[in-house]
Design goal:
Rossmann fold, five-stranded parallel beta sheet, 604 residues, alpha/beta, 21 helices, elongated
């Protein structure tokens, strides 16, 4: 089938009714032609002829979603808006009484049966982009991998990694169509030198960490600072914010943006730190679906996405629960999205067209497998705003932000700063991609939860992590290994209160499984790596050795990617221990004939 371009709206139409003895009656074929001429059609989302298509209108290049009721209302308003003197001309009709005839037509339209309208709607032409077989081509305008376009009432802001440019509507050469919801209903002025406003200050302070030394602080706000960790998390947040605004989608780049509290611990929630407000602010950039994580429970329900539509560009799941299962979202993150509504046929949004997704949580959640981490971008928020709530103060007070963010009273100048700040975040993302933080705080806590469960304290896992980082290397167990029983004895010596003998859960079996889980979930750590060819389970990696009593017992050898670095440091330390300070000075004097060197007593 040869597709044609969407025609422009006609200014005159053939009547879609006829006169009978019982009054006006709808003519189905003519009604179809009228609706087609004013831009109505059925939008096809996939190449499958069996998938559901959605009703919409192409209003001079602006695509507006509709349903059967809204189309009927649109036609009614269209008929009523035509002056009586123009009615005959617009519809090519001849009537002695314009006013009486128009009233008859409107009455006919109000009384038309749903069954007849449904047949007409189902016969409207199929419209789709050029990649899908259809009756009419729609060239949807979209972001590219390296460029982002943000539309406002007065123009378009074009952003790439090197430039941010405002283009007036009349100067923007574009014959493609856009969704109505993609146009931000505000005027914008690009002013990148003036982005420091209420929102940017809120974001910055949401990354503040408490100082290690708070002596001398006269008020609680003096206890917090933008330290190196804060700066790293801030860049991670800014690239995530830009990523969520940017509409380009690829399977290899699709990520679930995850906002969490840095102070959250196993089984203990922390909140009120600004993560929900920052994520919710995306609604001011694009059409957003807001989902309650608490209502969702451990996974999405059948009709969870019922308010998601073709023009929905972002899904925010706020405050997910402790038992939430990330794998329930993985297919939707990297593949197509299926939307099902009660009493309505489901439809599919293809991967490249589907909305991006973000999640907030007050809890540390279990889940650190490769399939988890490669599909998440984690940003850890600080505790500054949480502390403000504890102090009984308000964000909007003059000593803090000075405005209630995004309220009806939010000043026009602040809106402009908000959008300009977002432009820079988009540019950060286009420059750096999603920039993860090197902080392992959340991932470490997530592993602890997987090892010990919801009722754990983290004490046992912390001991194992410390043993792997220190004693294992100092005693050469990375080379010789150690029997499971001997390692357990060392553990109980320091953690008697965790043992089963005093009511704890850490018996030998629990301990061995905890060690396996910890090592298996930690990137760069290996459990009996020499047996890796036998499989990737604990039983497959079993290693039997002779103990001092010549009995075969289970041994374990933990190795990490950092072991080689430690070995080099120890070797250098051993070499330098045999070299005198005078000999080292002589060596450096020989290099450049200078004596301005100081010798560090011990190489770290």
């Amino acid at each position: 089938m040869t597709k044609k371009k969407q025609s422009k709206k006609a200014t005159t139409f053939q009547p879609f009714w006829y006169q009978s003895e019982k009054g006006c009656r709808v003519k189905s074929l003519e009604l179809k032609e009228f609706l087609t001429n004013v831009g109505f059609g059925r939008y096809k989302t996939t190449s499958s002829r069996l998938d559901k298509s959605l009703l919409f209108q192409n209003d001079n290049g602006i695509l507006k979603l509709h349903n059967e009721n809204s189309i009927k209302m649109w036609v009614e308003n269209f008929l009523k808006s035509i002056p009586e003197r123009d009615f005959n001309h617009i519809f090519f009709v001849d009537s002695e009484s314009d006013e009486t005839f128009k009233r008859d037509v409107v009455s006919m339209w109000l009384d038309v049966s749903e069954a007849q309208l449904s047949r007409v709607y189902n016969s409207l032409p199929i419209c789709a982009d050029e990649s899908i077989e259809s009756d009419i081509d729609l060239n949807l305008f979209s972001d590219t991998q390296h460029e982002c376009y943000v539309r406002f009432n007065n123009g378009v802001v074009k952003i790439n990694k090197d430039d941010i440019e405002f283009i007036k509507n009349e100067d923007f050469s574009n014959e493609n169509q856009v969704w109505e919801s993609s146009i931000i209903k505000k005027d914008i002025k690009v002013n990148l030198k003036n982005t420091k406003g209420a929102f940017s200050e809120f974001v910055n302070k949401s990354m503040y960490r408490q100082k290690q030394d708070i002596t001398g602080a006269k008020k609680w706000t003096d206890e917090y600072e933008m330290n190196s960790m804060s700066k790293e998390e801030l860049l991670s947040l800014r690239t995530a914010y830009g990523y969520l605004i940017h509409d380009f989608n690829t399977a290899d780049e699709s990520k679930l943006v995850f906002f969490i509290d840095s102070m959250s611990e196993m089984g203990r929630a922390e909140g009120g730190n600004g993560k929900s407000l920052v994520m919710d602010s995306i609604r001011h950039w694009k059409k957003m679906s807001s989902q309650s994580g608490k209502r969702m429970g451990s996974s999405p329900t059948q009709f969870q996405w019922s308010d998601v539509n073709l023009d929905t560009r972002f899904i925010a799941i706020d405050d997910i629960t402790l038992d939430f299962q990330f794998d329930s979202l993985f297919n939707m993150i990297s593949g197509d999205m299926e939307v099902e509504r009660k009493g309505v046929d489901k439809f599919i949004i293809e991967q490249k067209k589907k909305p991006k997704m973000g999640v907030t949580s007050n809890y540390v959640l279990a889940g650190n497998d490769t399939s988890d981490t490669r599909r998440q971008h984690i940003v850890e928020f600080g505790s500054y705003w949480n502390r403000l709530n504890q102090e009984g103060e308000k964000v909007s007070s003059k000593e803090h932000i000075g405005h209630q963010l995004f309220s009806p009273a939010f000043p026009k100048a602040e809106w402009n700063k908000f959008y300009n700040y977002g432009f820079l975040c988009i540019q950060d993302y286009l420059k750096h991609g999603l920039k993860p933080s090197t902080s392992s705080s959340y991932l470490t806590k997530s592993i602890k939860l997987q090892v010990e469960g919801k009722d754990g304290t983290g004490q046992g896992t912390e001991w194992l992590m410390d043993w792997i980082s220190t004693s294992r290397l100092e005693n050469g167990y990375n080379k010789t290994g150690i029997s499971e029983t001997e390692l357990y004895k060392l553990f109980i010596k320091d953690n008697l209160e965790l043992s089963d003998e005093v009511g704890g859960v850490w018996d030998l079996k629990f301990f061995n499984q905890a060690l396996w889980t910890l090592v298996d979930k930690t990137k760069g750590w290996y459990y009996n790596k020499h047996n890796a060819k036998k499989g990737n389970t604990k039983s497959a990696r079993r290693w039997l050795q002779m103990d001092e009593n010549k009995n075969q017992v289970r041994f374990v050898k933990i190795t990490t990617d950092e072991d080689a670095k430690f070995e080099k440091q120890m070797a250098m330390k051993e070499v330098l221990s045999d070299v005198s300070k005078d000999e080292v000075l002589e060596f450096f004097k020989h290099l450049d004939n200078t004596s301005s060197y100081e010798i560090v007593p011990e190489v770290a």
